[in-house]
Amino acid sequence: MDNNTQPAPEEVQQPSIFDESVFTPGEYDKSIRYARTALFVVAGVQALVGAYYAYMSPDGTTAAVTLAITLSIAVVFLLLGFYSNKKPYTAILSGLIVYGALLLMDIVVDPTSILKGIIIKGVIIFYLAKSLSDAKEAQEGMKHLKGG
């Protein structure tokens, strides 16, 4: 008898990209981290700008409404930043959509607003959009590792 028998072809398992030994979410971490930071930056800017406009508002009612709206938007981006740890693609795509909608609303209200802070707006959109493919792959990989 020969001790060097090879297993039958059906017994040989090919490594999958979704095996824990092969798939590491860390390979996408840098890109996702930049997008997460962008979400947190938007949250912080919204809170600061909202507080400034509320402070500069001529009456208390306008100040309260301004503060409530901008802080609500800030909370949305803050929650999306934290949610990007569990579902990076969903959170980053949602953040990009909400941010884009806010920019469009600003343009409708004040067309000159597109030029205000254009570099920061561009950087935020760049990091969110750039990380979408990595976030999608990471989220799918995490889903398959959990068996779902």
UniProtKB/TrEMBL annotation:
Keywords: Membrane, Transmembrane, Transmembrane helix
Spans through the membrane: 37-55, 61-82, 89-108
Protein name: DUF4233 domain-containing protein
Organism of origin: Phnomibacter ginsenosidimutans
